[in-house]
Recover the amino acids of this structure.
């Protein structure tokens, strides 16, 4: 049995990781400052994990949190393109300073490996699709810049200190427990909850923008593979975590209509600043070096997510 530290444990992805680790019989420690995480996400597992309310900007707290830990799954972040456009300093603090603190703490505690929630936003709006890890990044929003900078810190800590690090570039992860309530929430959480309530969803732009939407179970699996894969295959490296297929917002709206029994139409508003048009991943590196294979496809993920929100 290994001990895992999940940062952002009360978040959508962090709490899903914690739940799967427990299911596999691992020990879980979690930290969260509840900036975006929710206590409800931990209700069913709080008595089974060593949870600490702490901010990743607090170096002492991170040093204590890393003590005796084998693997760190670093999910804590302020994960939003538009929020970072409004507050670049806050984004920089949480998404870069927080990562550096955590890396210092992990290095000093001699953690075996740190796996990081990097972002597909690092690629920016370059026209070539699919995006592969060898492409030169061209981030647009402050959020994307911060996620890329943290990725580079991960690589730097491997090169300079030998701390094994793996960065997973998540492509629009969605699924149960994604917070739908903030203006900065992921589009699927918003659309599904709005349409289930009979409210008109808002599409920013013409709805022709596309994403490689990736169901949560695939991201969880990728994290666990990133912990167990051989050092020479993964340490100091970056991997796309996605499905290799993209869907437009207009297509999603149509798919969601029968699933949510919503018969209305969407509202179209101006495109969002900092947005990119199309996103699609080449997942061959993750397949080869991590042994990753998407477990749940987009349609199945969408059905499971709608079912979850309907029952929530
Ligand atoms: C970016 C990253 C993603 C993750 C995420 C964290 C890309 C391609 N993806 O997601 O990997 O790091 O940031 O937040 O950079 N939209 C609407 N109506 C709404 C809400 C959103 O039309 O009510 C649009 C939005 O303008 C965008 C698309 O939906 O074109 C997806 O937006 P999002 O906020 O769900 O995710 P995105 O792509 O910024």
């Amino acid at each position: 049995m290994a001990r895992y530290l999940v940062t952002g444990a009360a978040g959508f992805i962090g709490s899903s990781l914690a739940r799967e680790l427990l299911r596999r019989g691992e020990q879980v420690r979690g930290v969260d400052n509840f900036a975006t995480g929710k206590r409800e996400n931990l209700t069913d597992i709080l008595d089974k994990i060593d949870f600490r309310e702490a901010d990743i900007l607090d170096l002492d707290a991170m040093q204590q949190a890393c003590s005796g830990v084998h693997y760190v799954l670093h999910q804590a972040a302020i994960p939003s393109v538009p929020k970072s456009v409004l507050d670049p300093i806050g984004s920089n603090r949480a998404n870069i300073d927080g990562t550096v603190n955590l890396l210092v703490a992990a290095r000093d505690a001699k953690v075996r490996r740190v796996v990081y929630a990097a972002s597909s936003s690092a690629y920016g709006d370059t026209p070539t699709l699919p995006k592969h890890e060898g492409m030169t990044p061209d981030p647009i929003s402050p959020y994307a810049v911060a996620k890329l900078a943290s990725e580079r810190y991960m690589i730097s800590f491997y090169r300079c200190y030998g701390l094994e690090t793996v960065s997973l570039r998540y492509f629009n992860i969605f699924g149960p427990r994604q917070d739908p309530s903030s203006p900065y929430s992921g589009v699927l959480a918003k659309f599904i909850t709005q349409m289930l309530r009979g409210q008109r969803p808002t599409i920013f732009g013409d709805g022709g923008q596309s994403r490689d939407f990736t169901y949560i179970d695939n991201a969880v699996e990728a994290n666990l593979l990133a912990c167990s894969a051989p050092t020479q295959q993964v340490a100091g490296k970056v991997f796309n975590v996605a499905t290799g297929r993209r869907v437009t917002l207009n297509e999603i709206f149509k798919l969601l209509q029968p699933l949510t029994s919503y018969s209305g139409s969407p509202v179209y508003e101006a495109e969002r600043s900092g947005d990119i048009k199309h996103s699609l991943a080449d997942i061959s590196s993750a397949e080869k070096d991590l042994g990753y294979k998407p477990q749940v496809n987009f349609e199945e993920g969408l059905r499971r997510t709608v079912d979850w929100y309907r029952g929530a």
